[in-house]
Amino acid sequence: MTAGPGPVPDSVAGPPRRPALSPRELEILRLWLRSESKTVAASELGISLGTINTHLIRIRAKYAVVGRPVSDKTGLLIRALQDGLVSLSEL
Predict the structure, then answer these.
(1) Would the pTM of this model clear 0.90, i.e. be above it?
(2) Residues 49, 57, 87, CA angle at the centre, nearest 5°?
(3) pLDDT tens, 34-57?
(4) Closest CA to 21 of 51, 44, 55
(5) What is the distance between the alpha carbons of residues 15 and 89, in angstroms, rounded to a whole number?
(6) Is the Cβ–Cβ distance between 43 and 83 less than 8 Å?
(7) Are 82 and 67 in contact (CB under 8 A)?
(8) Residue 61's pLDDT is what?
(9) How far is 77 from 86, CA to CA, in rounded Å?
(10) Contact criterion met (CB below 8 Å) for 17 and 67
(11) Is the pLDDT of residue 24 over 60?
């Protein structure tokens, strides 16, 4: 008896799944990635730092749901670049 094929390697499985980010989440993510801090991003958007943090928590949670967890700004930048949500030229 032969065993069936093993799991499909990531390189063959196809592109990674993207989370369904809302337009506001995309706006906040892009601005935060371009800003030097959450405080600067909040000020530019005219919202509180707490609101920025809430959106970023939700964005990270959505990435975790699709099996692509991130824990920091660098991780979110990498995911956003991979998913075509930002480009190097706009950073």
Answers:
(1) no
(2) 85
(3) 999 999 999 999 999 999 999 999
(4) 55
(5) 23
(6) no
(7) no
(8) 97
(9) 8
(10) yes
(11) yes
